[in-house]
Design brief:
Length: about 450
Amino acid sequence: MSESSQRIQTTILIVGAGPTGLAAAISLVKQGFRDIIIVEANSSRGKASRALTIHAATLEALETIGCAEALVALGIKGTGLQLFDRSTSFLGTDFTSLEPYTKFPYVLLISQSTTEQVLESHLNDIGIHVVRPEKAIGLKSNDNGNLDVTFESGKVITAQYVIGADGARSVIRQMAGVGFADPDGTPPDERLAQMILADVSFSSSSPRLPTAQVHGTASGGRLFLTVPLPKESPDSEPIYRIGFNVPLSAGPPPSEPSTSYLQQYVNEQGPFYLSSDPTVNPNPIHISQTYWATRFRTHAAIAEKFLIRLPNSSEERRRGGIVLLVGDAAHIHAPAGGLGMNLGIRDAILISPALAAHALSTEQSFDENDRLLEQSVSTRYTRALTTIQLTKKIMSLVNVLGANNGKLLNVSYWLIRLVGKIPFVNRQFAWNLSGLGNR
């Protein structure tokens, strides 16, 4: 293939076709801008379901691009979150308290793979298709003030704008020379740093298993989550997402946790009603099948900046040569509250109007549209910082609750349990998780 046939020109290149990249592409088309190429390093969509919650503010954003209805039809409308001490509930929040403020007064429980399927199908329907597999390996400005992105395949795509939506290990962010660190400069909290996620089914049912709620268990410095997933068909057996921390004293968890490994932690830190040990559970239950399992480490980080103008010699450098970071490429944090994918999708949708206007600027409108793009990106940066701080507070709360281990004189623990019974506190927690105050 000749060098010229390997070179492609576009106005906006989106690198990464996860939920954030797909939402960015759809939103730009909805703004009337179609000179877009979206690429993905993987040859096919992933089947893993790492993220599984879509909150009210994100559903509102998705509604503006015509995707909310299809997602709601496939998910579970989660009514609340309950925290247990292995046996009894002591803290909770009710998302139905959001009814006066949104048409989506719930958290939608749906796998990330399903979310991506719906978004990509919608993108295909409006005439844009993801180019796979294309792994970016180079980024530089050219003499025309635009950006050349080089791919492993030998292809070069020249664009005025490059959206980095390629995840926490973003190649685009790294090649743009942008730092990525905890905004507070603090090291990760190692108490809940090692985490496992898995999708499983159980040998038998229990009336205490959640059907439309997120259940968390905090005890002895350990955390365990149980979340129902939508059934593939009415007759299929229920599948649950479980998640838990692995104490540092236990060493690093395996990259692909086995069913027996998962069962060990269900017994050690899950709710008693899920235990396979007959000495603690009179109706023992065990994991009957593991569909997917992975490990990861939790920490917080944010890019030094979300908008980068790469230096070049062109007089038109303000019109092109712009890198935008969105989603996990721009910010990551602990999974507390299931906020990560939500923030990324809102980044993509809410920046797109300013980006489309910037790309279509005339000489007369450019300065004003440039200011609006900077303002839009600055707002997203502030929203990311707010979300990171919220997740840190939630993780601190979990640490306090989990570390009590039955100690009657732990004042902080009992104060949190008492305050958690106040209706206003419950409503405020639902509001904070919903994102309605942090759009």
